[in-house]
Design goal:
Layout (H helix, E strand, L loop, with lengths): L1 E3 L4 H11 L5 E4 L9 H13 L3 E4 L1 H9 L3 H11 L3 E4 L8 H13 L3 E6 L10 H14 L3 E4 L19 H11 L6 E4 L3 H11 L4 E3 L6 H8 L4 H8 L7 H7 L2
Parallel strand pairs: 1-2, 2-3, 4-5, 5-6, 6-7, 7-8
Helix pairs in contact: 1-2, 6-7
């Protein structure tokens, strides 16, 4: 999942030309989709959907509308504009379990994909790993297709990351154990390369990673393919790389 803070149409086209195969979700960060000229936004959404990408506004926009008691109107507008998914979160506000479930139901009733985010944006309100997994399980049960674990666009001092951006692997493992096979539908917000590399080593190359800069999608794919130091080095001493794509490339 890439996070878009306001890319123009031509830049978006250029990124898709090199990275379309590696991008599954495209998030219009925080409330930026409300700032776009409407026609520009619609055209950009049409372009992204034509490439098979799931597109949705950041959860902060949902939270602002929920505070104003405009959730149904917000969901109708999102569908009308051309988004095909909605992110439900309470990173800044507080939602009751009933409100959260009702929001997911409202998304599904409109034929949209429900994606939820678990965690708080404030470094002083971090959730325990058990709270993260409990909320994720409830969201999946309510119909969420993916659950995003909070990491913000900085990846520092928030969620499962400390003040240096290092990930708490014990907490990650606790969440993984609690979720079982559902962990494959988790997107870990990991904007920093060292976080991405750590999660790839922890879960394997297909781990869901989010809040990646659109311009870094190719670089991240190289990381997954063990074509960068951070993921190549740990396996060099153990085994020879067996990659058909790499052999084909080397042999022209």
């Amino acid at each position: 999942m890439v996070i878009d803070t306001g890319l123009g149409p031509e830049t978006t086209r250029d990124i898709l030309a090199t990275s379309n195969a590696f991008i599954d979700h495209w998030k219009f960060s925080f409330g930026t989709s409300m700032i776009y000229p409407t026609e520009v936004l619609r055209n950009k959404l049409d372009l992204l959907r034509s490439h098979g990408i799931t597109v949705y506004p950041g959860g902060t926009l949902y939270e602002a509308c929920a505070l104003d008691r405009q959730t149904p109107q917000f969901l109708d507008t999102i569908k009308h504009l051309g988004f095909n998914a909605v992110e439900i979160s309470d990173g800044t506000i507080d939602l009751t379990r009933a409100d959260r479930r009702a929001a997911i139901t409202g998304v599904l009733e409109r034929g949209l994909i429900a994606i939820t985010e678990v965690g708080k944006k404030s470094p002083y309100r971090r959730l325990a790993p058990s709270d993260v997994s409990d909320q994720a399980l409830e969201d999946f049960e309510a119909g969420a297709h993916h659950v995003v674990v909070e990491g913000r666009e900085s990846g520092i001092g928030v969620g499962l990351y400390d003040e240096h951006g290092e990930i708490d692997l014990r907490a990650v493992d606790e969440v993984r154990t609690a979720l079982g096979d559902l962990v494959d539908r988790v997107i870990w917000e990991a904007p920093l390369k060292k976080q991405q590399a750590s999660l790839i080593r922890q879960f394997g190359v297909n781990v869901g990673l989010g809040n990646v800069s659109p311009r870094d999608a190719v670089a991240l794919e190289a990381l997954r393919a063990r074509l960068r130091f951070e993921t190549l080095e740990p396996i060099v001493a153990r085994a020879r790389i067996r990659s058909r794509a790499l052999r084909d490339y080397c042999h022209g």
